[in-house]
Amino acid sequence: MQIVYEDKKQKFETGATPIEIAKTLGVQLSGVIAAKIDSGPIDLTRKINEDTKIEFLTFDSKEGKEVFWHSSAHLMAAAVKRVYPNAQLTLGPAISEGFYYDFYDIKLGDNDLELLEKEMKAIVEADSKFVRKEVSKDEALALFKGNKFKAEILGEAESPITIYETGDFIDICRGPHVPSTRYLKAFKLLKVAGAYWRGDSKREVLTRIYGVSFPSKALLEEYTKFEGERSKHDHKKIGKELELFETSAWSPGSPFLLPNGAIIYNELLKLAREMDKKYGYQEIITPIIAKSEVWKTSGHYEKYRENMYKVAPFSVEDEEYALKPMNCPFSTVVFNAKTRSYRDLPLRLADYGFLHRYELEGALDGLFRTRMLEQNDAHIYITEDQVENEIIRMFEIMKEVYAIFKLTPLMTLATRPEQRIGSDDAWSRAENALRNALEKSGYKYTIKEGDGAFYGPKIDIYVLDFTGKPESAYAASTIQVDFNLATRFDVKYTGSDNREHTPIVLHQSVMGSLGRFMGIILSNSGGDLPVWLSPVQARIVTITERNNDYGKKLLSKFIERGLRVELDESNATLDYKIREGQLKKIPYIIVLGDKEEAANTIAVRSKDGKTKYGVELNEFSKDLQEKIKTRTL
């Protein structure tokens, strides 16, 4: 058989393994954990029986990490079975950063993880090999007798079944894996969480253990150090510390914004509406509930039904309604409210209606992944020859908004999926318009083949997080071309030829979900917000009780000027009051003592710890108002 490696071709005996091929080719195997051929990643000991290209995977590659972390999930499961023999295995995949395994009939908490880590170390030291075998379905069922979860998996599989043995541990698995446990040198079990079998809340409750692993202790130490830094940027932790939002079992996935959080949210909403007004968008307000017929017409009922909330009036059992998961169909009612001509286009309609989408409980994540959301949403009705220029115009809005927060965009062009509507010619024209807009605007972009929506191609825009690493960027904005909406809802306009035409619809969301965008800003800033976004822009602290009346007088003046200022007139020490203000990340601390009161001035302490004395109230107020007006960082 012929093997191609780095553009070099060489003949090998059929059945040669990647290890044998590497040795013949002179490839250094240090750090190599698996191989990749045309059919995908394989074990280093797997026999190859056909002509193929070959790569050698290390932990540095995405696929190498998946192999390493999947192997680590098996290592952890083997330790769990030793410590808790009655635990039933379910599934244990690699995830974007690390791995987890779900178990049934086991009770443990975070304090038990140290014991499991000790057992994992013993298995690593034993240097047990990962051995791949193929067995019949009956043999596999016998191996996992009494485990209803594995029986369910096997019931859906076809023979032969692939299993892996690692010492005395056996699991159903397609692999591949590292050659032996000694490769899994450094690991850490992170936490214990609950999960449902196959993500179904009506099924069994499982115990999920999360972990992460690396080929060296140095990499683990680097990760641990980074995690300490990342915890400072955890928007959920920040939300708790700054009293911004809460979650409740009353409504999972629907955050409760506290007064401080509502201020930030409303400032973002204010910014979004200012941009809409500046760039010629008209705001509409539409219902949050509609008959299911709407969603059947739009296509969401068929393709998105599992993520929708069905509701019905108590008194009318035969009529089905749904909470809207998207605003799109409602813009068609506004368009069709009167006869339109080509002179009305582009018609730009902004809609901030609340949406409800059913997300699995395990996927919910603070403000990032919710079941209730409000989008900075717009639908633009245009002619086909307006598409390119309109998209370039959208980029200008995005640039202006992103500049306020110093966000760096990463552009992706998602092209036609296999399941789609519209002609190939129409798709080509739309993709070219998106591509031309990106290139004329000077953006570099990556292409996500086949990742477009069923109704048209799109540009998805990501923003870098505090690490600056593209692989951990947040999805933020989207621009989508839609061939479907206007056609399905019989939307027409009269062209310059006095004939009826169907417009194209662009879906645009600059900030995406406002709650999610708020979470991004909190995470990137570590909660250290600019003065215009800060719930409390300044806090007055008095040195003694006799200065409290002066503090109240100044507080009234600040409030009259529309500034968010509060007064701390407690009996605590000055140092304690200042420290409290710093912990709450308040931009300015105004210190009042006898000298300030006598001179009718203030002392202003900024975030950098520097204090400016003898400041006039009007001078400080004007400076603050200017920073707020210009949204200065």
Mind explaining what this structure looks like?
The structure is a single chain. The protein has 633 residues and is α+β, with helices and mostly antiparallel strands. The protein folds into 5 domains: 2-58, Beta-grasp domain (Ubiquitin-like (UB roll), Roll), CATH 3.10.20.30; 65-232, Threonyl-tRNA Synthetase, Chain A, domain 2 (2-Layer Sandwich), CATH 3.30.980; 250-286 and 324-525, BirA Bifunctional Protein, domain 2 (2-Layer Sandwich), CATH 3.30.930; 289-323, no CATH class; 538-629, 3-Layer(aba) Sandwich (Rossmann fold), CATH 3.40.50.800. It is 34% helix and 27% strand. Strands 16, 20, 21, 22, 23, 24, 25, 26 and 29 form a 9-stranded mixed sheet that branches. It has a 5-stranded mixed sheet with strand order 2-1-5-3-4. Strands 6, 7, 8, 12 and 13 form a 5-stranded antiparallel sheet that branches. Strand 3 and strand 4 form a beta hairpin.
Features:
five-stranded mixed beta sheet; nine-stranded mixed beta sheet; alpha+beta; Ubiquitin-like (UB roll); 633 residues; Threonyl-tRNA Synthetase, Chain A, domain 2; BirA Bifunctional Protein, domain 2; 5 domains
| Cα gyration radius (Å) | 30 Å
CATH class of the largest domain: Alpha Beta
Provide the residue-averaged pLDDT: 93
* CATH architecture label of the largest domain: 2-Layer Sandwich
- Note the overall shape: globular
Structural class: alpha+beta
List how many beta strands DSSP finds: 34
Stretches with pLDDT under 50, minimum 5 residues:
none
Kindly identify the CATH topology of the largest domain.
BirA Bifunctional Protein, domain 2
Q: Helix count, per DSSP? A: 19
Distance between the termini: 63 Å
CATH superfamily of the largest domain: Bira Bifunctional Protein, Domain 2
How many separate structural domains?
Answer: 5
